[in-house]
Task: structure prediction
Amino acid sequence: MYEQIKLAYSFDALEPHIDALTMETHYSKHHAAYTKNFNDKAVALGFEGKDVIEVLASWKKELSDKADGAAVRNNGGGYYNHNLYFGHMSPNGGGLPTGKLAEKINEAFGSFDAFKEKISAAAAGQFGSGWAFLSTDKSGNLTISASPNQDNPILETEGAVMPILGIDVWEHAYYLKYKNLRADYISAFFNVVDWNKVAENYENAFK
Ligand code: MN3
Result:
């Protein structure tokens, strides 16, 4: 049984950056639906119990030609991506990464500001619904990318690259408060990023 991550904060805790109604709708409706649909497909196709990362990494080889393949991709991606997203937001977030993650960000992008600019541009530039990700490979090298729909680097690289930070740029993530101003939402999002959690994701990406 695939379960939604338990939120470590209340729906209104990320105000004013992310509003309570958006959080409640996003978690209780959108993410809940991806999770339910992914569980249903897992039962139908007989892969329940398999780690979602393995499902996504092997999707191209094992599921892309199945009748329910697209549903697994969309709902499995939606299930995983939202667990990542809700897991690295916090009312005590914002600020700067520290330690090894900070070093690797500086090494890969020149500075934190340059990193922020690059991932914000990837998120703003994703046409239609999708995500921007900060990801790592097995050697710890960081990359920024964007994916349409509920795709992610695990699916795209068959597990060679793991996301450690995701910015949801579907309109359901920001439209109630920010309307058409996606860039304002992206800017506000950085005030609630829990960099300790992102650092943990970095350390655990291939464990
Ligand atoms: Mn979403």
In short: Residues 26, 30, 82, 168, 170, 172-173 surround manganese (III) ion (CB under 6 Å). The mean pLDDT is 97. Strands lie at 130-137, 142-148, 161-168.
